[in-house]
């Protein structure tokens, strides 16, 4: 699963058309451009292995590389990747061909805390800077989704999430597994990343929710949840099925099929 175990294919030949970067900018973005925290500090235990999930390979490149390339193709400037503290150098090496990208240690306590560490590493931005938070576990998010999220924040929203309709009926259950409710399916959506925010909104949400981050059971599983908790309005844009989260082996197999189909097209 290690990124260094195979030599990577040339990006132009292996990258699906929807992920190709039009032009690679060498300049540092100004603070008014969009930036992103790419969370990659989780483990791969549900996927295949004990190492970092984000270094599991998809068509010769680690998941985190695909996710970072996709963000850049969607118009994102500076990217901070939160990696497991013990694997920082492996991540730097795996991402060395992507410019304006920094790898920092994430948290082993919760995703929420990893995001907070990533935001701190981005440094202080203008209040209206667009900041995205994206999961490295979503390697194939089309740049159009990222662009939609950025546009919606630039258009005046404080918080924006990409969503899809749910196809399964969902139930709420109690601690014993007994069903206690059936929310109307038409009222529910499945939430993806990247989630986008005005900088000031996301920073306040993380500051006010910081005490939850030390405990995985209480921590927010997405950043929009922290905005909701401070009374903020969260808007939605259309997500995309290709933005699926790679969690289990079946997800990785599907991602491999998607890359193979696109690169042969
Ligand atoms: O665990 P889950 O699948 O919800 O993780 C979503 C994303 O958050 C993954 O990209 C994972 O690497 C990241 N994460 C993190 N720090 C943690 C836990 C998860 O950066 N402590």
Structure description:
30% of the residues lie in helices and 18% in strands. It is α/β, with parallel strands linked by helices and 265 residues long. It has 8 helices and 12 strands. 44% of the residues are buried. The strands form 3 sheets. Strands 1, 4, 5, 6, 7, 10, 11 and 12 form an 8-stranded mixed beta sheet that branches. It is globular and about 45 Å long. Residues 39-42, 53-54, 82, 106-108, 110-111, 114, 135-137, 247 line the site of cytidine-5'-monophosphate. The site of cytidine-5'-monophosphate has 17 residues, from helix 4.
Brief sketch in words of this structure:
The protein is α/β, with parallel strands linked by helices. It is built from 8 helices and 12 strands. Helix 6 (199-209) crosses helix 7.
**What is the helix content?**
25-40%
Beta strand count: 12
Instruction: State the low-pLDDT regions, or none.
Output: 1-13, 22-29
End-to-end Cα distance, whole Å, is 27 Å
Radius of gyration: 18 Å
How large is the share of residues in beta strands?
A: 15-25%
Helix vs. strand class = alpha/beta
Largest sheet: 8 strands, mixed
Based on Cα principal axes, name the global outline: globular
**What is the averaged pLDDT score?**
90
Helical element count?
A: 8
Oligomeric state of the chains present here:
single chain
| Series of H and E elements | HEEEHEHEHEHEEEEEHHEH
Unique ligands: cytidine-5'-monophosphate
